[in-house]
């Protein structure tokens, strides 16, 4: 069984023991997560943290696969420098022998699919909220809109066509919806997980 280690490539929580050392590369507060800030991924200091310090820790602990979170930083700060920095970090991690699964980051992923670099940089994608959703303001779980579901279905189909593994995480999908998602994933060769809560604990 392969166990993924979580690697936050685009933001930083203030609960991390090394948070104070990286305050100078932090940007806006992360919506919905008050104890987290986006990171300036173009800074060499941040890149060293991700591809050297954190990667070394995971190597020493025997992890072979990394769950890459918050490539969405490219959606938030849509600049070529951010795009190239993310690609550079992923390429470095890939050279170190890690299997990489990019969580979310559909804007970034879509661009790598267009320029043909996706399969060289990572092995799969995970998408949350394809069929369900969570309202951070109302703190309520619900059903995703048809427009967003259709968008994610097209996006995931493109990822699969490019040779990437596809995973889906939903939140509190009911029995009937779960049956629908089971059939959908079986039909397309995806794997999915029905989480009990937004914090995945």
TrEMBL record:
<dbReference type="InterPro" id="IPR004352">
    <property type="entry name" value="GH114_TIM-barrel"/>
</dbReference>
<dbReference type="Pfam" id="PF03537">
    <property type="entry name" value="Glyco_hydro_114"/>
</dbReference>
<dbReference type="InterPro" id="IPR017853">
    <property type="entry name" value="GH"/>
</dbReference>
<protein>
    <submittedName>
        <fullName>Glucanotransferase</fullName>
    </submittedName>
</protein>
<keyword id="KW-0808">Transferase</keyword>
<feature type="domain" description="Glycoside-hydrolase family GH114 TIM-barrel">
    <location>
        <begin position="5"/>
        <end position="187"/>
    </location>
</feature>
<dbReference type="InterPro" id="IPR013785">
    <property type="entry name" value="Aldolase_TIM"/>
</dbReference>
<dbReference type="GO" id="GO:0016740">
    <property type="term" value="F:transferase activity"/>
</dbReference>
